[in-house]
Amino acid sequence: SRNLGTPVGLLNQATATFLQTKFTHNNVLNVFSISGTGNSGLNILNTQITDNQTSGSNRAIISDHNETIINFEHVTIANNTGFQSIVSGFGNSQRTTNLDGSIIWGNAAINLMSLDYPGDVNISNSVIQFNPDGMLNTLLENPLFVNSDNGNYHIGFDSPARDHFNSDISIDFEGDARPQGLLDDAGADEWTDLIFKNDFEEL
Fold first, then answer.
1. Across the beta sheet with 111-113, what order do the strands follow?
2. Which of 18, 117, 3, 135 is nearest to 60 (CA)?
């Protein structure tokens, strides 16, 4: 956290996977930048991307200049400011973006994907701030974070992200088991009853 520039850069046919990671409070051009030639891969799982900002123009959280397959699964992207879109492409970018079981909420971004180079987009089982028409089992609803103003992006008891779908990931970003209910929760956090967490009462 608290980086300047671009925290993550991929070049040419590079592939990267981020699991149980937080990208937060960075003042950056982009959080992820992908450039060069060839097919790249970016996998982001059980990860929070929150409270980042950019002062650049036409910036995105992920900037792709390549033919990249981007996979989001159980990712929470929230309260990022200054970015025009979540994912953008340039030039001959022929990207495929898959977003499953994730939360996108409270970001300043006008668009989910850049309008010039949207690529192929597959969205499912998520709670997002954009129109979900054509998306599978995806809601346009406030995910009801516990206290996002103070950086707490756990989902609350009444969150629409709870018990939302069947996932193949067995833990959340903190290592809590999935699912805690009948189904898995969308986003990086799996709701847990903190009163009895770890077999003892927490106040």
1. 8-11, 32-35, 60-64, 85-89, 111-113
2. 117
pTM across the whole model = 0.91
List beta partners, residue 169.
none
Q: How many other C-beta atoms can be found within 10 angstroms of the C-beta atom of residue 173?
A: 22
What's the rounded Cα separation, in Å, for the pair 54 and 151?
18
Enumerate the β-bridge partners of residue 8.
32
Q: Report whether pLDDT(10) > 80.
A: yes
Residue pLDDT, tens place only, 109-142? 988 988 776 778 899 999 999 988 889 999 999 9
Angle at 188 between CA 167 and CA 115, to 5 degrees: 90
Which of 169, 153, 4, 160 has its CA nearest to residue 71?
A: 169
